[in-house]
C-alpha cells in the first residue's frame, strides 16, 4: 500500500497544474469593445473588465466592492479593498487606479455609475435574465462566466481564461513594461515577492537570451 501511495504522489507531482491564462491589455480591449451597446449589462461588463485588470483584483474582491469604496480623483480613482486574501483582519488597503488611455477604467466606471446611480450598496449589481439590473451583488462565478463569454466573442478559447486572468493580466503587463516590484506590489498587495518575481521572469524570458547571437 505504501508503494502504491508513493507512486500516486509521484504521479501527482509530475502532472503540471493547469492555470488560467493571463488576459493581456490588447485582448481585453477587444473584449471590452465586444460588449456593445448601452444596455445596463453591457455598460457594467465593460466597467468590470476594465477595473478588474486595472486594479489587479481577485474575483472575491471585485464582487465585494461597495460604492463607498470608490473615490474619484483627478488622476483616476482610489479604491479601498476592505478584505482580501492577504488582509484577513480587514485592515483595508487603498490602491490607485489611473484613468488610463487604452482600457480607460476611469471612463468605464463613470459610465457605469451614471446608470447605477448613487444608492449605497454593491458597486456592481447583478443583472437578471432579461439584462435588467437588480439590487443584488454579482457572484464571483458570474465574473468568471463574464470573462469567458467575451473571450469567446473575440475568438479566444474561453476555457483558457477565468476571473483570475484579469489579475494575472495586470501583473504580466506590468512586468513587460518594466514596472518595479514595489510598484507592482502596491497594486497587487501580495506579501510574497516570489510570486511577482515569477511574472518578471516570464516577461523577460527571451530578453538578452544567451543564445540570441548564434542560434
In short:
The protein has helices at 2-14, 25-34, 40-54, 59-64, 105-116, 140-153, 164-176, 181-188, 193-203, and strands at 70-73, 76-81, 93-98, 125-127, 133-137.
Q: Give helix % range.
A: 40-55%
How much strand? 5-15%
Residue windows where pLDDT falls under 50 for at least 5 positions: none
CATH topology tier name: hpI Integrase, Chain A
Number of extended strands:
5
For CATH, the homologous superfamily is named as: Intergrase catalytic core
pLDDT averaged over residues: 86
Query: What topology, given as strand order, has the largest sheet?
Result: 1-2-3
Radius of gyration: 19 Å
Determine and state the CATH class: Mainly Alpha
What structural class results from the helix and strand content? mainly alpha
List the helices and strands and how they pair.
Elements: H1 2-14, H2 25-34, H3 40-54, H4 59-64, E1 70-73, E2 76-81, E3 93-98, H5 105-116, E4 125-127, E5 133-137, H6 140-153, H7 164-176, H8 181-188, H9 193-203
Antiparallel strand pairs: 1-2, 2-3, 4-5
Structure explained in plain terms:
There is one protein chain. The chain is mainly alpha-helical and 215 residues long. The protein has one domain (19-204): Intergrase catalytic core (hpI Integrase, Chain A, Orthogonal Bundle), CATH 1.10.443. It has nine helices and five strands. It has helices at 2-14, 25-34, 40-54, 59-64, 105-116, 140-153, 164-176, 181-188, 193-203, and strands at 70-73, 76-81, 93-98, 125-127, 133-137. The strands form two sheets. A three-stranded antiparallel β-sheet has the order 1-2-3, with no helix packed on it. β1 and β2 (76-81) form a beta hairpin. α2 (25-34) packs antiparallel against α3, α3 packs antiparallel against α5 (105-116) and α3 packs across α7 (164-176). The radius of gyration is 19 Å and the shape is globular. The relative contact order is 0.16. The mean pLDDT is 86.
Amino acid at each position: 500500500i505504501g508503494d502504491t501511495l508513493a507512486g500516486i504522489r509521484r504521479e501527482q507531482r509530475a502532472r503540471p497544474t493547469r492555470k488560467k491564462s493571463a488576459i493581456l491589455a490588447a485582448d481585453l480591449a477587444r473584449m471590452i469593445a465586444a460588449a456593445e451597446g448601452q444596455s445596463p449589462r453591457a455598460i457594467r461588463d465593460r466597467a468590470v473588465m476594465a477595473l478588474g485588470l486595472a486594479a489587479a483584483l481577485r474575483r472575491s474582491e471585485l464582487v465585494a466592492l461597495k460604492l463607498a469604496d470608490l473615490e474619484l480623483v483627478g488622476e483616476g480613482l482610489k479604491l479601498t479593498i476592505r478584505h482580501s486574501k492577504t488582509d484577513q483582519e480587514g485592515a483595508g488597503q487603498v490602491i490607485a487606479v489611473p484613468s488610463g488611455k487604452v482600457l480607460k477604467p476611469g471612463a468605464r466606471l463613470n459610465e457605469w455609475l451614471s446608470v447605477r446611480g448613487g444608492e449605497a450598496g454593491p458597486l456592481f449589481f447583478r443583472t437578471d435574465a432579461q439584462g435588467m439590473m437588480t439590487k443584488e451583488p454579482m457572484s464571483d462565478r458570474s465574473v468568471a462566466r463574464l470573462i469567458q463569454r467575451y473571450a469567446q466573442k473575440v475568438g479566444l478559447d474561453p476555457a483558457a481564461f477565468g476571473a483570475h486572468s484579469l489579475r494575472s493580466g495586470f501583473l504580466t503587463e506590468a512586468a513587460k513594461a518594466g514596472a518595479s516590484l514595489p510598484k507592482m506590489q502596491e497594486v497587487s498587495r501580495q506579501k510574497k515577492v516570489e510570486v511577482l518575481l515569477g511574472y518578471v521572469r516570464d516577461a523577460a524570458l527571451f530578453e538578452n537570451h544567451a543564445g540570441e547571437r548564434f542560434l
